[in-house]
Automatic annotation (TrEMBL), chains A, B:
Organism: Sulfitobacter mediterraneus
Gene Ontology CC: cytoplasm
A Pfam family annotated for this UniProt entry: Sulfatase
One of the record's GO molecular function terms: metal ion binding
Protein name from the UniProt record: Phosphonate monoester hydrolase
PANTHER family: IDURONATE 2-SULFATASE
Keywords assigned by UniProt, alphabetized: Hydrolase, Metal-binding
InterPro entries (UniProt xref): Alkaline_phosphatase_core_sf, Sulfatase_N
Amino acid sequence: MNILFIMYDQLRFDYLSCAGHPHLHTPNFDRVAHMGVRFSNAYVQSPICGASRMCYYTGRYASSHGAQWNGFPLRVGEQTIGDHLRKLGMDCWLIGKTHMVADADGMARLGLSADSTIGARQAECGFDAWVRDDGLWGEGPDGFYDEKRSPYNEYLKGKGYDSENPWADYANAGIDDEQIASGWMFRNADKPANIREEDSETPWLTSKTIEFIEEHDGPWCAHVSFIKPHWPYIVPAPYHNMYGANHIPQPRRADVERDDPHPVFGAYMENKVASAFQREEVRQKVIPAYMGLIKQCDDQLGRLLDHLENTDRLKDTMIVLTSDHGDYLGDHWLGEKDLFHEQSVKVPMIIYDPRSAADAARGTTCDALVESVDLAATFVEAAGGKVPDHIIEGRSLIPWLHGEVPDWREYAISEYDYSATPQAVKLGLRPRDARLFMVFDGRYKLMHAEGGFRPMLFDLQTDPDEFNDLAKGGKHHPEMDRLYDMLAQWGRRMSQRVTRSEDDIETMRGKSGRRGILPFMYDGSEVPDELTVKYRGTVRQDHVKGDDKGS
Amino acid sequence: MNILFIMYDQLRFDYLSCAGHPHLHTPNFDRVAHMGVRFSNAYVQSPICGASRMCYYTGRYASSHGAQWNGFPLRVGEQTIGDHLRKLGMDCWLIGKTHMVADADGMARLGLSADSTIGARQAECGFDAWVRDDGLWGEGPDGFYDEKRSPYNEYLKGKGYDSENPWADYANAGIDDEQIASGWMFRNADKPANIREEDSETPWLTSKTIEFIEEHDGPWCAHVSFIKPHWPYIVPAPYHNMYGANHIPQPRRADVERDDPHPVFGAYMENKVASAFQREEVRQKVIPAYMGLIKQCDDQLGRLLDHLENTDRLKDTMIVLTSDHGDYLGDHWLGEKDLFHEQSVKVPMIIYDPRSAADAARGTTCDALVESVDLAATFVEAAGGKVPDHIIEGRSLIPWLHGEVPDWREYAISEYDYSATPQAVKLGLRPRDARLFMVFDGRYKLMHAEGGFRPMLFDLQTDPDEFNDLAKGGKHHPEMDRLYDMLAQWGRRMSQRVTRSEDDIETMRGKSGRRGILPFMYDGSEVPDELTVKYRGTVRQDHVKGDDKGS
């Protein structure tokens, strides 16, 4: 069996028709949901690109692997799905974005060169890179945001797009009176991107994926990782005006949220992207573009599924559709992601398992509390292995996919390290204090903030919109203690004993006695003779008397 | 300045005259205490050889580095004092024991060969090994406990000791009617070890240390790590009978401890070594030998200090005297270490800083709550560096050594993973549930036990003997909440963000905008022109119309 691990960037959980969107029709996402299981309560372990992805790729929480924000390198030696799957004879390939930053210092410290296979895999977060392109080719006075090569820009140049940075000038810009109308500016979101639709990012990466599949026998896991619908919010015709004012929901926000808000929430509500999304003209421009980008993703998914179907590969390919985090789009007075409201931290999670054991659950929705770290465990089990649960902190979803009801977690955790953001500066926080923790039991959602702040608390049963912070004004709500106990229990988890599995330890027990470690004997009668035989015999030399007898 | 980081194994905090021992006179330990500062409240982060040492050598808690018990390899890539000090131009050498187990799987995964400098240092816990000898050459039907070479055994053979394992047959055995009287058997503890005193372990390692000092210019940190007074409890003449019945204290234990004990404590009280030490004849044999071993350590320390003095090296050598854990010796109905009573988890910590800034504090006792992980921070600061507090979890003791009163911790933490022991089997625990946590605020000591057990709680102010478990019978003591809050706070600590320091993050802040990441603009007027200049200009090709104009 092969695994197609498909990730979209910044795709909200509710912007799919199978998740109930009233206007955005995504028949191909729905098709996979119909073939498999749609998990309706899936949460990422950090609602920001880099950290979320590191959690997916290691199967470990952000504070277990330490790559807690964008640009924080994943420490050398941290094990990834590539490591686990290759041990089981399954290759692990990348097509697209990871946001991985290599631990160059660590690699140098261990003498790993980036051009060895081992070094390259360390630098690529455990993947063999078919295509590595993180999709954001921003450029400013200090240079490119991403200093690696861009296969996508090279493709565009090869197709005749006349620019040093065609990603910026064509794929992510429209035209306004013969001037480049950059997609960085929301004003331009409703313009068609100045590119042939088939050359835009999503079709390009889909073509690379089809090419990969045609050239590789399995078993493989391929991480197909699209940049869209992440900003810049601009999409080529015909998607740019497929949606309009009639399709834009009212923002889900309430005045009460702005009244004595949690200080961290308050700082975010005042930041630049939040201020932008508080303006209705921004939402009116951006949301149709965002929907158009998703529609294009759905059409391209259809192209990929058709290819699998036409080549009879659906029968041996597991398919996962997910996202690294959501997008507020003006809900809660915010833009972007970062915090823990559903719009940000909850993601689509649709999984198709082709095996007959999964027949019973096809087309169902599962509301178990899923964490993104569960995918690593799921892939190991799908590849025929035993989940190394002293390393991978997630749990395999295979039982759910097979219609079983396993023992399951009582709460989901997510974390956010905002130390590198203006909000941390605004709040006057030392970097290590700019950290948030979410504990969600399926009904109550607690956000703990380091740095001496009060928490936030929502009851999603009575307040599904998460407008009423029950911890406002420092109120102590009875459910807080229970959720703080869960957070404390999670804080005591065993996350670093990565060199000894549970089985290893059970095997170790009682062995040292058979190797002469016997520190509890009075006279040796306590143990069988064979254990003490090496400590007996006639003395050969007597050094006490200073008299070295011969033997 | 050089650093002599001297560690004894299993040396109780109170078996020194400067700590108040009424009979054991240790003038050389006292001499260093008089030259420097004696820390009277120093705690190890795991009261067992292997895990304690890994904490010392990384400056990190056991659940941060994961090498939580004897034989658990320290994961490849984990940074050690060797890494930190070499960056500052200070070599880092080993003379003696570390109990380090190399992460062979991890090294293979990263292609590190054990015979490269990098690989050797990984395998030796970051040290360059002048002498590596872990001091326990037990042998049983399954072979040697330690499969590495033994420089000490090689030395003894070279000196004519006739045996395949002279450590067992001579250094750690006496003579009983011409038979080997093994030191593994407590019955033999009062016999003189069958070896010339100058060839026994402590003098041998001291000679190797003096040799090292003579051959190495600084700056260096040398970890001089003795096996004694760890068992086998046997010592050569004249030390074997220097102490006797008059010098053995009553065991510090009470019947109330055995009444409805905490299940983990109860399991330990029933184990073999505890049962042995509950017999007064065992204490009568062992304790004088233990004292003799310490007396020999003190005499040899004197030899080393005299050498430093005679070669005028005291003026540029920092000296640290400490231990990896204690020894119950029958107190609390126990033998060995493992749990968190003072006899086990508290250690000597005597530090001499030769610099004039330390003059003000010479000869003083400091009762600040010290953790063994503080030494790594202390050494980095002593070597002239800034403590990498995103990696090292301890705090530098230099301020205390210089007579200052820095902001300090409110509680000390220790952990114990007993998953590989018979007690975990007896209690029917999964390995990951066999874990204990200590939180000590200087007065109240809480022991939390995973696996669903109640905690233990002591008030050392009203019950300095730690006989009265305030949590017995599941009682909820008001102080528990406060200590559990401390444990929860510690559980949220940032321990894995090892690739980005606080300074790195402060430097990162706000930089992406200057590299073209501008996801919040309506029309570009929000930022200076220089940030958007790359996104402007005349369109060269119009792909919207399908009409590629020339430029």
